[in-house]
Input
Amino acid sequence: MMKKYLLMAVCITMMSMTASGVTINKAMLDHNGQVTLFDSDKVQDAVNAATDGDVIYLTLGYFKPFNVTKQIAIKGVGEKTIIEGDVNISIPGSAKLTKPVLEALVVSGTVTVGAQVDDMIFRKCVITNVAFEAQVDGAVIDRCYINRNFNLSSYIKGMTVVNSKILNVTASSGTANNTTFVNCNINQIQVQNFAGTIMNSIVRATCGNGSTGAMLSSTLAVLVNTLCNYSGVVRISTSVITQNVYVGNFTFNNEECSIDKSTLQSSGYLGTDGTVVGIYGGSTPFTLDPGVPKVTSSSLSLDKEKKELNVKLTVSPK
Output
């Protein structure tokens, strides 16, 4: 019971520091209610000390790169939890995961999947590059921003990308199939053998160098309720299977890889769920805010006779 109280106290402390904007650069390993703190350059030590099922919480601040070698979850507090470099996910034994591997954090380098894994989830993350070097099945990329390169490969046996922004979709090997994009904003797709599905999304179809390459030239791609920009040599093949695909010339916001919500609404372009397409659509629109309540004040005292912690919190709206 005391372990639970101790964990509560540590969590309250972390939330309070988050609310006041204090950067404390700590990793907190939660193992069955037992809490161990590590410095920001010792996240790998926290991973090494963890066992399957544990959670490592990262505070505000900057953290050194690490390798995920256990079936654990790494959770930050949003855009101010920053990994300065690469994260490699190489869990032995063809792992089948039950928790998000990465959640509510920023990876300034590349996230590489280097060992076979099922049911892998990235949620509410900003990641510079994502690469797959081993088989993945049942993967979910949820409310993420891939701000440089999302590299598909034939290793992907099943993956859904939902409510996410992606700067550039490429493929390193084979036909890029078994991937479905739902309610996404995609700046560019440079995959001639793309055999996946794009639903209720926006694709800013412009070629990187303006003279070569093609967007969705494969006859295997499936587009449903998708808005595309048609420009220059970048094209949507007439043989691509399509339903309710709106093709035209639009003015895009470069940073968001999107058209603003009001423009979409005024043009009457709706997605399959009755909302506008792209990251503005769906039941859970794109956001990097983890939705953690902001603690504006707190007090904590210990009643030694009753062996109880007395906690008082003032919490602002989300």
